[in-house]
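user: can you give me the structure for this one chain? tokens are fine.
assistant: on it. calling the predictor now.
[tool input]
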Amino acid sequence: MGYMVMSWLFLTQFLMLHAESKAKVPAIIVFGDSSVDAGNNNQIPTIARSNFEPYGRNFAGGRPTGRFSNGRIPTDFISGAFGLKPIVPAYLDPMYNISDFAYGVTFASAGTGYDNATADVLDVIPLWKELEYYKDYQKKLRAFLGVKKANDRLSKALYVLSMGTNDFLENYYTLPDRQSQMSIDQYEDFLISIAKGFIQNLYGLGARKISLGGLPPMGCLPLERTTNFMNGYECMESYNTVALAFNDKLKGLVGKLNKGLPGIRVVLSNPYQILLQIIQKPSSYGYDEAAVACCATGMFEMGYACDRYNPFTCTDANKYVFWDSFHPTEKTNHLVADHLVKTVLSEFL
């Protein structure tokens, strides 16, 4: 009888450990733009920064970190949901070192995109450079943990990619070069090919669990609504149509990658529908305002135009879907992250 109890206990422990080792994500590793930049841009000469008040006023200690929000960003909440640390620090932030980055790190740069030409607009970190920083990180992690343990962590980590909005709004629709070279459909395909190559590179470097971020309803960002005054400041439907088309192509890419790369698991983390739902029915989520942002007049300001001297900034950011004209409030980031964890990322938990 004692032997049976011992065997049963051993089996239970074995199954629990096996389940844990199978589902456990020991680190979150992030690439992308301002949606997931935690302050890398503070360390480079660019105007695409937010390391000043009132940014970060609801962050721990009321500290402006370089996150484009009044508080935490989606990857911070995803990290917390996976039982890791409540924030994912920026790789270039001198406040942190490899012992912090072992559990989570972001290489993201506000203003960047898949297209190198997008990064050039505001002199920010291009995607290829984010990958170079990741290779540097791998070396430091192996020196810190030892090669075997580091490689194990890198293969079990969740890799989060979030970018693309700037490619369209900051580059294609704003500057003449890409428009003269490609139709919007061709440009989407061009970006998809870059995303594919980037994930293949990550795979070659040991990544196996990847979350590929979809585009938000970018026609509903306050900045785009402000410019749509001829249509009563409604969402720019043409931009939303592009976002939907691009997300469909990302979905197709996910299917191809999962079939073509042995042992990989790529998922599409698509914020489009949940964010559109919040924008269309803000009161259902406890918001008062979805068309304009909290910071400054809420119509067109972001970055340096949204500073502590602006007299119009709202007192309660939780009543607003957007913090500045381009970026959601911490509350919205939390809602979107929770939705993605429950509906998509839960398979990695």
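assistant: here you go. The longest helix spans residues 237-260. The first strand starts at residue 28 and ends at 32.
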